[in-house]
Amino acid sequence: MDVAGSGDCAAHGAAFSRHRVPQNINSLTMAMGELKRVYQDLKVRVEREEKLQKMMCTTEVDAWFSSVEDMEKEVNQLLAKIDLEIQKKCLGSCCLTNCRPSYKLGKLIREKTAAVAELQSRADHFYKVAVPSIRPAVDDREMPMKKPGALDLLFDMVLRWLDDEEVGSIGIYGIGGVGKTTLLKKIYNWVLERNSEYDVLIWVDVSQSLEMEKVQEQILSKLDVPDYKWNYMTLEEKAVEIYNVLKTKKFLLFLDDMWKPLHLLEVGIPLPNNQNKSKVVLTTRSQQVCLQMEVQKMVQVECLGEEEAFALFSSQVGEDTLNSHPEILRLAKIVAQECKGLPLALVTVGRAMAGKRNLHDWQRVEQQLKRNQSISSGEENVFQLLKLSYDALGDENIKSCFLYCSLFPDEICCDQLVELWIGEGFLGEFDHIHEARNQGGDIIRRLQLASLLLDGMSDKYVRMHDLVCDAALRIASERKKEFVVQQEQVEMIKADQVEKWKEAQRISLWDCSVEELKESPSFLNLETLIVSCKLMSFPSGLFGYMPIISVLNLSKNFELIELPVEVDRLASLQYLNLSYTQIVKLPNQLEKLSKLRCLILDEMHLLRVLPRQLIIKLSSLQLFSIFNSMVAHGDCKVLLKELECLTNLTEISISLKRALPTQALFNSYKLRRIIRRLSLQDCTGMKGRPCG
Fold it and tell me: How many CA atoms lie within 13 A of 55 on its CB side?
C-alpha cells in the first residue's frame, strides 16, 4: 500500500520500507551466509595443514579470519537493530515520523552488504594458507629443558646419524616418561625448520594398540592422496597406494611410541637404503623392539642426573617460591630426589608445587613421599608422584574432568571433550553453551599447565601420557569409581567379561568386538558408555538396565545401522552422539529423553528420517548438531521450526542444501544468532544474492 504524504523524503522512505528493506536484508543475510561458508571451508583447510602438515596459518589469512569474525558481530548487531525497528512496526508500515532513521538503516544495510562481499572476494587470492611453523610444530611441554644436558647430547648424536648416508634407521628407547618423545619432537622440529633435503616428513603416533589402519591414515594424510580415493580401500590397497607414492620420494618417517614391531612393507613403507636415501626414526620403551626392527643405530634415553634433575624441577616450581622460605629450598631438593630423575615426574610434581610458599605444604609432601618410599617399587613411586599433581588440582570438578580423560587411549578433540563434560554435568549450570565451552577450555588449559594433559597433533586436540593415564585409572578405582577402558588388544570381548563390568561407573570400548550377550547384564551404576567398535546393533534390552546413565557416545560405529527402541528407558540421558554411524532412521522413542541437553548427529550419510515432532519434544536441548548429514540436505523447514520453538537451545550446527530451508534459517533471528557451524549448498532460487 502506498503512503500518502508530501516531500521526497516521505515518498522515498515509503518506497524503501515497502520494497527495498526485505530485499536488502535477504541480500545481506545471504552474503553473510556465503562468507561464513567460505570462512568455514578455509578454516578446515588451515586446520588440515596445521594438524597434518605441522604448519601454521599465514598472518594474512589469520587477519582475514579476525575480520570475518568482527564482520559477523557487526552484521548481527545491525540485524538485531532492524528487528527492533520491525517490532515497532516502523519499517513495515513506514511511520512518517521515522522515515529518516529507516532510510539510514537501509543505507547501512547496503554498505554492510558491499563490505561483506569485498571481504569474501579477498579469500579468492589466498593461494597459500599456511607456512612452516616457526614455533615447535609438536608441543614440547612434556619435558621442557632450560640448559644443555644429556638430551642435547643425544639430539646431536641422532642428527649426526641422519647425516650419515650409511644409516637408514634409528631406534630411541628408554622407560616411560624419560623423554623419548620429547627428543623425537625436538629432532622433528629441527628438521622441519631447516628441511631442504627431504621430499616429505611424516610423523606417526603408533601407540600400544598398533592399529595398522590408523598408521596408514596418518601417512596418507601427508601424501596429498584425496580422501575419496582411499576411504574405501582395503589395508592391502592402501599399502600399495602408500608404496607407489613413497618409492618416488626421499622421506623421513618418525614412528613414536612403538610397543611391538611394525612391518614397514605391510604398511606400504619402502625400506630405507642407499638408493632412496630415506630414513626411519622410532621410539620405544623396549630395546627388544629396536632389535626386532633391525635398526642400524640405537640409543637409550636415561633418567637425569641429580643436578640436571633439580634444575628441571626448579624451573617448574619457580625461583620466587623456592626462595620464599629457607626450609623450602632444602625440602625441594628432597622432593626432586624422590622423582628419581624421571622428567615426567619432575615436571608434573614441580608444576604442582609452583606457588606453594607455605612451609607446611612442602613438609606434608615430604612426609607423604617418605611414607611411600619404604613400600614403593619404581612404578609405585611414579604413581605416588603423579597423585601429588592430581591432589594439587584442588577443585573436585577439575579432578573429575582429569579422570575422565583416561577414558580416551588416544588424543581427543577439545571441543568434543568439553561437550562430554557438559553432558556429565561437570560444568554446572549455564545460560549459554559458549559459557560452558569457555569454562571447559579453561580446565583443559589448567590441566595442560599441570602437565597432566599434553597437546595432540594440533592445539585442537589433547592427549594423556600413558603413565598419567594409568595413574588416573588407578585413582578412579581407589575412589570407588570403576572405569573400564578396553582397546583393540582384545579382538573379541567375551560375555562373561562384560558381566564383570556391572559395577562400573564409566565404560569406553575402542576398536574391538563384543560377543553376543544371551542375557543383558544390569549396569546400575553406569553413568557413561562410550563405544567406538564394530557393532551393527545392540543386544535387545540392554538399555533397560542403565537407570542413571547420562552420556551415551556411539560415534564412529561405522557399521551401526539402528538404535534400539529401548533407548526411551534412558531417562537420565543428557548427551547422545550418533555421528559417523549408518543409522537410517531415528526411533520415535527418543522423544522420551526429556533431560537430553546435547544431541549430535554429524556425518550420518544414510540418515533419511527425523520423525516429526521429535526434536520439539526434547525440551531440555541446549546443543544440536546435524552437520554434513543426509537428512539436512532435504527440506528442513519443519526441523528448523521445531528448533526455533526450543527455549533452552543456544547452539546449532547444520548443513543445508536447497533454497527454502536456507531462506527459513536466515529469516529466523533466533536461529541465526546461535549458529556455530553452517554449511550451505545449492541455494539458487533464494531471494537476494544466491550462495551457491
Answer: 17
